[in-house]
Amino acid sequence: xxGYILRRIGQAVIVLLGVTILVFILQHLLPGSIxxxxxxxxxxxxxxxxxxxxxxxxxxxxxxxxxxxGQVVHGNLGYSFKQNTSVGAIVIHDLPNDVxxxxxxxxxxxxxxxxxxxxxxxxxxxxxxxxxxGVSFLLYSMPSYLLGLLLIAVxxxxxxxxPAEAPQEPTIAGVLSDPAGLVLPVATLxxxxxxxxxxxxxSSAIESxxxxxxxxxxxxxxxxxxxxxxxxxxxxxxxxxxxxxISLPGILTFGLIVEELFNFPGVGLAYFNxxxxxxxxxxxxxxxxxxxxxxxxxxxxxxxxxxxxxxVRYD
Amino acid sequence: MTDSRKPAGAxxxxxxxxxxxxxxxxxxxxxxxxxxxxxxMILRAFTENRLALTGLIMVVAxxxxxxxxxxxxxxxxxxxxxxxxxxxxxxxxxxxxTSLGYDVLGRLMVGGQSSLLVGIAVAVMxxxxxxxxxxxxxxxxxxxxxxxxxxxxIVLAVPVVYLFIDLASVFKPTLLLLIxxxxxxxxxxxxxxxxxxxxxxxxxxYVQAVKIMGGRSGRIIFRHLVPNTMGTITVNATFQVxxxxxxLAVLSYLGFSLPPPAATWGGMLQDGVNFLYDGYWWEVYPAxxxxxxxxxxxxxxxxxxxxxLDVRLQRR
Lengths: 315, 316
Known about the structure:
The complex is a heterodimer.
Chain A: H1 2-28, H2 34-39, H3 45-54, H4 61-73, E1 79-80, E2 85-86, H5 87-122, H6 127-140, H7 144-158, H8 172-176, H9 179-209, H10 212-219, H11 224-262, H12 267-277, H13 280-308
Antiparallel strand pairs in A: 1-2
Helix pairs in contact in A: 1-4, 1-13, 5-6, 5-9, 5-11, 5-13, 6-9, 7-9, 7-11, 9-11, 10-11, 11-12, 11-13, 12-13
Chain B: H1 10-13, H2 18-25, H3 31-48, H4 50-72, H5 104-140, H6 142-157, H7 160-168, H8 175-186, H9 188-201, H10 205-212, H11 217-228, H12 230-254, H13 265-273, H14 285-309
């Protein structure tokens, strides 16, 4: 298994190198040049030459790539000239808010999706199963912002019991000091993530229910509740690890949309605003970071699966 | 074409899955007939499966609404009309007008055209390329497979919406660019699926038999491997239409899609959001409903076809 894990880590490193190449190419696709994109269309030729010299943009592409790679490896994601601060500082400032939003939603989504999935498997092809399937079908056929809009329309506009905007204090204490503002963003993200999870949980629980150990448990006279909690639930938790890992890109995308919709002060919103304002260093820095999170999520899922499930053999 | 005149040997009859049933349905037929039969199976799935049929009817209805509708209900969706701003539904404007004075009903029709065009074009292009890529990786295996699949992993590591926004912040989107870029980001799923299928198909007896008879790789790939992945491909392509329409809706909502005055459902929602507090519901809900109906329709078709064609495909 050690061999498998090492090979898997090697793959992840190769993929990350590829991502840096991809982002590097994207940067050089900027119309005109990086210098013109940053210092503006009215910059003179000598100003552009000076900028290029200062930031090493007059060197050959391979040299530039390796210097870019070296920066990324040292945790330097670039410098935002528009906001006059490093991309790293922006991320460090906003990331705790994302941990609150995405973390809470993820935990809530699992707390809902796992029991619902098991219930659907147990009551397969009955009314409750159909109802739950229908709801998740509707949720994943809906752009995630539409769900947020509906929640705003009902709870903020019609009932006037919750604010339509996330907490606007850009610090973690500020965000936490306004829990009412967190309700709608977290609810939106939780529901769309649930829709992402629920089908998978249902089929995974159906598969587990057909296993021999469930029949053995029944044969020795265990009650339904004991079977579900002690045997089915535990075994259904293994694929959840994979599920969370592979769903990370989806969750990060939903996060971006929810942050934009509720004006939540997270990395996603910083990225969105940077894209609108042409703040390219932030755009590309966050892209590298998102890719890193995705690759790390997949890697973590695979390794955790290998450790948690002794039935899986790796050669 | 010319193959249909060749006698069907025992070897082509030995094909599994789609090929088996098709060969049985058309005894004496050759390869071309067999491919016809694969399509006939898909057609039959529509007539037998109520879910798929419902989805198909919904898609046809939406397509008629978007493409034939403007002929019956002609509206000006280019020039703004400051005299008809934010009007509630009336006989003149059955679904009211927007903040720029566009007729909402007419705008729904025009906006849907780009959604359907982009969705279907992306599914066709992405599936075509993905199948080609996946079958080559799976058939040749070894280092070719490793290199090709690492490339898939790399592009897959950046979520589609992020990659698209990166590109859209650099280039100004046009309909063609939207289709090309979304296709460039959507072929990864089919490539992985087809590679997996190919890995199991290439060791089947009938593929071995073609090899022994001296069939070249190209023949094996396009005459035997690709037709046998048809079921999976079709089901996946249907889901891809739904996904592309959703992604487009998200991108238009975020403002990274066709610039005004071009109409998109996502763009209509973005414009309407500002008036949610004013109670101008007609500027938000109709566009949202159209997106949901269209995506649900394609998901219905996908689910129905999956059950009918007996494809094992985990959806999300």
